[in-house]
């Protein structure tokens, strides 16, 4: 859901627990709805295996690539932040947002004016963002050899994603503006109301959204499956909750994650991971994911998100009104309850989210470390096998094992891979 960027920020905040805290490794992003159908998946898988076979262990050339990709990602965090703010500024300072509101207000059914505004805003925002989005998500990924799709395959999935984000994002936005116009403590009411909505999303997404892009099937390697099922049942997880996904349809990156609630919980392993990792390495990754599952990290992640949403909105409410008063001539709206203020609200949330990132990142890193401990305790793999799993994640995904401490503190949802390697080696040398 990377395309949501600033528009769907509320939603992204909500989805953070799924997107990042629960994934097996960091690197920089977790791709929830990236991808796929099944045609020729097998061919791609075998290709990937051959390619990856030559990628590990790392060569000098690949090490250079790793450094340049990591350094690019670090710069891009800031670039994309400012691009998002710039786009919101265009909406506000050109009066475009107010014009959209006026156009939407002309439709015969007044009740739907807000919905029309939101759809127009979403489409225009997508168009403005399109160049930077294509650059980051298609061109750069292709340049570094991660992309397994043609441009049009990629674009088709991206547009489906846009449609889904319209469906899922518009309801909370509409709800938010209803509350702003009706009550003083709208920020609190919204945060409380967001909780069941988020829970619903976490339940529905693995069931109905992710399968639109990828095939989720029981593990195909039956020997591996039986070993993982034994492991799963030893910690009280039903084996039927373990899936492999044909992520190789879209990307060569490797990953694994846990998602779902109320019986829709599932542990998902990327086929790229299964094809490139040994049984012991996969077992450790599974042990880590089971840790998230057993320790209810999804609930903690959701609760943290709600807290951060409440805090962000409260802070916004304290400060945004004076900005509106100051610029009302340019913006052509004079109160927050005017839907035309949406770009300003999103810009605010984006800034607060950037500033509060160390809080969510730190909590996430703590849970990740707990899961690493769990993985080492519940599996019998050696520290070396677990460390090799992390090393492969770093090399295959080109993620920096040893980032600058400030970058790690601010942005990393997972501890630096070098630390994780040192930790698992220290548990069982
Ligand atoms: Zn994890």
What do you see in this structure?
- With 429 residues, the protein is mostly helical.
- It has one domain.
- 70% of the residues lie in helices and 4% in strands.
- It has 15 helices and 4 strands.
- The chain has helices spanning 9-21, 41-53, 60-93, 96-105, 113-143, 151-182, 186-213, 222-234, 271-276, 279-294, 297-331, 342-378, 383-397, 405-411, 417-427, and strands at residues 216-218, 242-245, 256-259, 266-270.
- A 4-stranded mixed β-sheet has the order 1-2-4-3, with helices on both faces.
- Helix 7 (186-213) crosses helix 11.
- The longest helix has 37 residues, at 342-378.
- The two termini are 39 Å apart.
- Mean pLDDT is 85; it is low at 1-51.
- Bound molecules: zinc ion (ZN).
- Zinc ion (ZN) is lined by residues 22-24, 288, 292, 368, 371.
Can you tag this structure with a few keywords?
429 residues; four-stranded mixed beta sheet; disordered N terminus; binds zinc ion
Secondary-structure blueprint:
Blueprint: H1 9-21, H2 41-53, H3 60-93, H4 96-105, H5 113-143, H6 151-182, H7 186-213, E1 216-218, H8 222-234, E2 242-245, E3 256-259, E4 266-270, H9 271-276, H10 279-294, H11 297-331, H12 342-378, H13 383-397, H14 405-411, H15 417-427
Parallel strand pairs: 2-4
Antiparallel strand pairs: 1-2, 3-4
The structure holds zinc ion.
Zinc ion binds next to helix 10 and helix 12.
């Amino acid at each position: 859901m990377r395309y949501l960027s600033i528009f769907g920020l509320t939603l992204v905040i909500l989805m953070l627990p799924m997107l990042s805290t629960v994934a097996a490794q960091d690197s920089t992003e977790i791709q929830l709805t990236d991808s796929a159908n099944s045609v020729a998946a097998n061919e791609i898988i075998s290709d990937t295996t051959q390619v990856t076979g030559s990628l590990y262990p790392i060569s000098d050339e690949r090490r250079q690539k790793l450094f340049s990709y990591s350094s690019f990602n670090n710069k891009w965090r800031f670039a994309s932040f400012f691009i998002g703010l710039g786009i919101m500024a265009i909406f506000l300072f050109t009066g475009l947002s107010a014009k959209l509101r006026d156009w939407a207000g002309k439709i015969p059914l007044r009740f739907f004016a807000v919905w029309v505004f939101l759809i127009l805003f979403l489409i225009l925002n997508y168009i403005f963002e399109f160049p930077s989005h294509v650059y980051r998500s298609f061109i750069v990924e292709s340049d570094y050899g991660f992309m397994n799709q043609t441009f049009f395959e990629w674009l088709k999935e991206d547009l489906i994603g846009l449609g889904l984000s319209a469906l899922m994002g518009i309801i909370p936005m509409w709800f938010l503006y209803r509350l702003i116009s009706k009550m003083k403590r709208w920020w609190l009411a919204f945060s409380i109301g967001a909780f069941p909505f988020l829970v619903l999303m976490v339940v529905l997404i693995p069931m109905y959204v992710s399968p639109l892009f990828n095939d989720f099937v029981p593990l195909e390697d039956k020997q591996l499956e039986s070993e993982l099922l034994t492991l799963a049942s030893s910690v009280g997880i039903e084996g039927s909750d373990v899936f492999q996904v044909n992520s190789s349809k879209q990307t060569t990156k490797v990953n694994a994650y846990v998602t779902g609630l109320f019986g829709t919980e599932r542990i998902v392993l990327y086929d790229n991971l299964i094809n490139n990792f040994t049984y012991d390495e996969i077992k450790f990754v599974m042990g880590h994911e089971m840790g998230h599952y057993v320790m209810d990290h999804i609930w903690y992640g959701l609760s943290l998100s709600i807290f951060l949403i409440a805090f962000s909105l409260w802070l916004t409410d304290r400060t945004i009104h004076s900005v509106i008063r100051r610029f009302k001539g340019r913006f052509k709206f004079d109160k927050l309850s005017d839907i035309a203020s949406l770009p300003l609200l999103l810009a605010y949330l984006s800034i607060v989210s950037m500033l509060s990132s160390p809080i969510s990142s730190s909590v996430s890193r703590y849970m990740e470390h707990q899961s690493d401990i769990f993985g080492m305790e519940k599996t019998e793999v050696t520290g070396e096998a677990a460390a090799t799993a992390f090393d492969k994640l770093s090399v295959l995904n080109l993620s920096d094992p040893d980032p600058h401490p400030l970058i790690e503190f601010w942005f990393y949802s997972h501890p630096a891979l070098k630390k994780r390697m040192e930790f698992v080696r220290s548990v069982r040398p």
